[in-house]
Amino acid sequence: MNENNKRLFFGLSLEAPWPTSYPKGRIIQETMRHITLAFLGNFSFSKLEKELDHFPKPAFKIGPVGETSQVLFLPKGHKPRVVAHEISWLVDGERIEMLHKNVLDWLEKLDYPVDRRPLLSHVTIARAPFENKEWEEAFEELPIFVSGIHLYESLGNLHYKSIWEYSLIPCFEELEHTADVAFQVCGTSFHDLYIHGALALSFSYPPFLTFLEEEKISDFEQLVRLLNVMITKCDAQMGCPFKAVSYHGNFREDKENGLLYWEMIVDV
Amino acid sequence: MFNLKKVAPATYVMEKKEGMRVPGLIIATEEIMQEIDFEKPLEQVRNMAFLQGIVGYSIAMPDIHWGYGFPIGGVAAMDAENGVISPGGVGYDINCGVRFAVIPETIQSIEGEHGDKLLKRIFETVPSGVGRGHKKVRGLSDRDYGEIAAKGARFAIEQGHGFAQDLEHIESNGVIEDADISTISSTAKDRGKNQIGTIGSGNHFVEIGEIEQIYLPDVASDWGVEEGQLYLLIHSGSRGFGHQVCQETLDHFLAKGYAEGLPDKQLVCAPIQSQDGQEYFRAMATAANFAFTNRQTILHEVRTAFHDVLGISPEKVRLIYDVCHNIAKFETHEVEGKKQRLCVHRKGATRAFGPGAEELNPIFKKTGQPVLVPGDMGRASHLMVGMGNSLTWCSSCHGAGRARSRVKSKKSWKGRDIFDFMQKQGVTVMATSGRTVAEEMPDAYKDVDKVVDAVEEAKLAGKVARLKPRLVIKG
To answer: How close A232 comes to chain B (CA, Å)?
Structure first.
């Protein structure tokens, strides 16, 4: 093996309100959890680095959002080695598949070996030894968003280091607010803002996301109203830490990038 | 920057500018104004002054911080005939309020194992935090809702949750007139059906501690409050029921275009005498009565816990007073030498009637009404007495007010054992969520001692006793 080679792969870094404790298993650190987009193997980074300027651009500027939908034990069969959570995308699922295809095409052109199996969006949480039953019982649906696209080096012993990043705009960021909670929510449409606003709230209270509904949203007031409908339903069914989303808050449009920014203030 | 002119001790006037119908009045000391960002809430004081029918001043208390439309710690009185009523001037948590009781025992009775048992028992029987509805109590029926609307705290007492004499120790005797259950949606009823007797999350709490210092012995004596005694504070409101009333009204008022011409949509309001204004008042009063019932039921559970754990009979846990601090009420005050009926909005502000006020029971008519000022769960809370200050329509502060955001507070306490920290300060805390406790740590709040000093300096209320928390339940 060439000493300059590194064990490389492209992946999507993730943000989620990860639980603070898990069942037995070798747990991957929160900051290293990712979705593997394309595994390369041992190759020279300096050679690949020269090509990174031509990395296929994703069709999204904002990190896609989703939720963990089920626990997976991989590879499927008698002796799985990995506990993972499958991810269902709420926005941009097709665009992630497109990115996956484009990255594989690009790598193939550069003569890297590629695995053409369809992308299974999942995040590895732990490695063996583990008890399937314990992990099944501990599973909860969590909101999730992609924070960046990376070239990772696998350092062994469940450690991964990002050695190149393609930045994405976060769908929300928490802001300082003296009395209540506030977020800067970003999207390309009111529909995006609805989903991203709901996602921001579900980072504080994950069950909240189950009240998200498929809605067509045409204006700002409807956006606020529908988020409040989620709060109402959540409170009636299981209790909710949020009182209401305010009609207050700055709202601006970045026409150059086709993005909407909303300062969402929430009474708690 | 706002140009404030000092007109009296701890009292500043904000000059009337274009669009403002009245000047602003800020109750604060220079020290308080310099400690936190005062500009944003002052913008809201200015905005309040735009509302139709506002009389006197647009008023801010020293615990002021940014709110929805009105600042928290904001007071505005509207002419009852020509003025407006604003859900943003009441807040989402309609009749959020505080209840104070004393127990004729000393701190020794709740030290060690006894205190732990008491706290655990209350934690089990008074649900707090998200998703903890009252399992012991059946969901409210339509009939229950009708009675809650009509009777407020008396409904709970008729269920065996308290004593008839408790009513004389509750603002407005525990019921706001003109409540009407027909103004309430089924959605609001759904939200509230399991929430009677629950604290909720955020800054709501049950607190037990020691009366540490008496400042006005005569008043304290009239009220039966003694140094070294145990006290109980309950802070909760109308829960999801009230939030829904507020939300639906805001949506309705906005849809009807009532926000046109206002500097902030959240100030949206309807003329008091319009059908929409009247309906909101009736719905708000219903939610207020829900909140009175809630706090009465919580008190009952705490009394039961004192009895079961420490053998203290329920009647010995003596209710001193219950105040609303998110409410709009019709009151008669003197305006330019004439009696005038006003709709006084107090949002994060407490009524502080002085001696002689009509509504008060004989004890409080002699002294002025109790004003309850919870601080933070570590340092102190205060018991004050209203002075009936006419500049503020007999209003005072409602708490310490936040000094630091929830995000900042969480970050600064991340990775530290907050429960152990509080224990070392002599305060045992139980909570459903560690996150809430991190958001509510003492340093997230202004120093309540400075806030009550400002209130006293401005002659809104006088300090009666300083209270030191020992056992706290948070949401």
So the answer is: 7
Beta strands in B51-138 (DSSP E): 54-65, 72-79, 84-85, 97-106
Determine whether the interchain pair B65/A247 forms a contact, defined as Cβ–Cβ distance below 8 Å.
Answer: no
Q: Give me the pLDDT at residue A77, please.
A: 81
Those residues with Cβ within 8 angstroms of residue A37's Cβ, 6 or more apart along the chain or in another chain: A9, A10, A11, A12, A99, A100, A103, A119, A149
pLDDT tens digits, one per residue of B338-369: 999 999 999 999 999 999 999 999 999 999 99
Characterize the bridge pairing of strands B24-27 and B54-65: parallel
ipTM of the complex: 0.84
B76 is written with which tokens? 């505005």
CA nearest to A127, candidates A158, A155, A151, A162: A158
Domains, chain A, ordered by start:
5-167 (3.90.1140.10), 172-267 (3.55.10.10)
- Written as six digits, the tokens of A239 are 């209790």
Residue B291 tokens read as: 């909140």
**Both tokens assigned to A8:** 């490389």
Contact of B465 with B225, CB cutoff 8 Å: yes
Whether residues B132 and A239 touch (CB distance < 8 A) is answered with yes
Per-residue model confidence as pLDDT tens digits over A181-228: 899 999 999 999 999 999 999 999 999 999 998 888 988 989 999 999
Question: By CB neighbour count within 10 A (0-12 exposed, 13-18 middle, 19+ buried), where does B16 fall?
Answer: middle
Omega before residue B217 within 30° of 0, cis: no
Residues B4-474, CATH architecture: Alpha-Beta Complex (3.90)
Could you tell me the residue ranges of all domains in chain B?
4-474
Residue A247 near chain B (CB below 8 Å): yes
* Nearest Cα to Cα of residue B169 among B212, B232, B91: B232
From the number of C-beta atoms within 10 Å of its C-beta (0-12, 13-18, 19+), residue A162 rates as middle
Which of B68, B251, B407 comes nearest A174 by C-beta? B407
Are B29 and B454 within 8 A, CB to CB? yes
- Per the CB < 8 A criterion, the answer to whether A25 and A127 are in contact is yes
- For residue B234, give Cα distances in angstroms to A234, B203, B316, B399, B460: 25, 11, 17, 13, 23
- Helix, coil or strand: residue A152: strand
Q: Contacts of residue A176 in chain B, CB cutoff 8 Å?
A: 405, 407-408
How many whole angstroms separate alpha carbon A98 and alpha carbon A59?
Answer: 8
